[in-house]
């Protein structure tokens, strides 16, 4: 669906050359929610803006739905952008226009639709994002979450196949973030839209994305299915992002665990194994006793997962670890 073939981007600023994106190859599949996570300046916005050619690459080719974005002339680019919607951190709504007029904007800029059709489409879009009763308000009269919903309705107006989200929830409080992410999830599932989102929060990735790429200094340092990357991060930058999301302080944990006897293991359960009454059974069968040092049960998009840090003492430890592994639990020895 979206293909980067050795794409790089350099900026020139103040006589300096800034390598925002090193030569990068990447494939984003049709219908998936793909997340890009990275610290400030990692190159996330650059990568996102290359997709709809708000930025032109310095080298390489970008294909969207088989079309070479890098080769489009002005008229073809205008048509192409009707198929790629975008939403922004600060919403980018026109303050002097009503909610309905903001949403109608891309429709009025495009083909000559009759006013009646535009009105009907705007009504449909506002109902879609849960703002059916806010059409005549102005952006200043709306909350942040409502403004982002207007942004989403506007981005969907021309029936795009791709939605680009530039830190779409970074300006929102946690509860509103949850609602906006749920709306993006719904749009992805119901309209089959391909979504590419950038964020500096691994938690946003965990909640809505199917796959993720971690960017650092203009390079993808790790990528893969979210469950893999989130539960078994390999690169130190990815590990830090995950620990931030999980509110884990490794040094603090090491101190806490220093006084605990036994073998310390981190267990990762995925899918239905998360709810299986495994520990009690294995403890009884092997005589191994356990204390729970840390734990969390949550979801990665729709898949439940659990992570438990246990101290195991006594009994037949090899038999206990073998039984856990046989039940599909991933084990990591912390000490
Ligand atoms: N128009 C520009 N002119 C010059 N340098 C730029 C321009 N846009 C971005 N950069 C530089 O390119 C690098 C990557 O920036 P980019 O905005 O893509 O990163 P980011 O990961 O999106 O960061 P943030 O989360 O802060 O938006 C940074 O060093 C930035 O200063």
TrEMBL record:
Residues 2-242 form the ABC transporter domain. Keywords: Amino-acid transport, ATP-binding, Cell inner membrane, Cell membrane, Membrane, Nucleotide-binding, Translocase, Transport. It is found in: Cell inner membrane. One of its GO terms (molecular function) is ATP binding. This is Methionine ABC transporter ATP-binding protein. It comes from Stutzerimonas tarimensis. Coiled coil: none annotated. The keyword Nucleotide-binding applies. InterPro entries: AAA+_ATPase, ABC_transporter-like_ATP-bd, ABC_transporter-like_CS, ACT-like_dom_sf, MetN_ABC, MetN_ABC_transporter-like, NIL_domain, P-loop_NTPase. It is a peripheral membrane protein. The keyword RNA-binding does not apply. It holds the Pfam family NIL. Its main location: membrane.
């Amino acid at each position: 669906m979206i293909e980067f073939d050795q794409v790089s981007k350099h900026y020139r600023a103040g006589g300096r050359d800034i390598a925002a994106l090193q030569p990068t190859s990447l494939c984003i599949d049709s219908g998936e929610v793909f997340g890009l996570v990275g610290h400030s300046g990692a190159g996330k916005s650059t990568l996102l803006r290359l997709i709809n050619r708000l930025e032109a690459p310095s080298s390489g080719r970008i294909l969207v739905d088989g079309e070479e974005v890098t080769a489009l002339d002005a008229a073809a680019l205008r048509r192409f952008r009707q198929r790629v919607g975008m939403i922004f951190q600060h919403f980018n709504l026109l303050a002097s226009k009503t909610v309905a007029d903001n949403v109608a904007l891309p429709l009025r800029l495009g083909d000559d639709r009759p006013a009646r059709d535009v009105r009907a489409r705007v009504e449909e879009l506002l109902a879609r994002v849960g703002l059916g009763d806010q059409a005549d308000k102005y952006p200043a009269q709306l909350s942040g979450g409502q403004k982002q919903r207007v942004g989403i309705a506007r981005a969907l107006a021309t029936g795009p196949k791709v939605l680009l989200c530039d830190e779409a929830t970074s300006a929102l409080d946690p509860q509103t973030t949850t609602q906006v992410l749920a709306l993006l999830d719904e749009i992805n599932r119901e309209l089959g839209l391909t979504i590419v989102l950038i964020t500096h929060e691994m938690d946003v990735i965990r909640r809505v994305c199917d796959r993720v790429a971690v960017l650092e200094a203009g390079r993808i340092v790790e990528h893969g299915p979210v469950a893999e990357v989130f539960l078994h991060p390999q690169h130190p930058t990815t590990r830090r992002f995950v620990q931030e999301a999980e509110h884990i302080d490794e040094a603090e944990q090491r101190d806490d665990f220093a006084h605990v006897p036994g073998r310390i293991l981190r267990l990762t359960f995925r899918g239905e194994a998360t709810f299986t009454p495994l520990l009690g059974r294995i403890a009884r069968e092997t005589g191994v006793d356990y204390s729970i040092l840390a734990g969390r049960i949550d979801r990665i998009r729709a898949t439940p997962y659990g992570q438990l840090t246990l101290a195991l003492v006594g009994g037949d430890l090899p038999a206990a670890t073998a039984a856990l592994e046989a039940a599909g639990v991933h084990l990591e020895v912390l000490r």
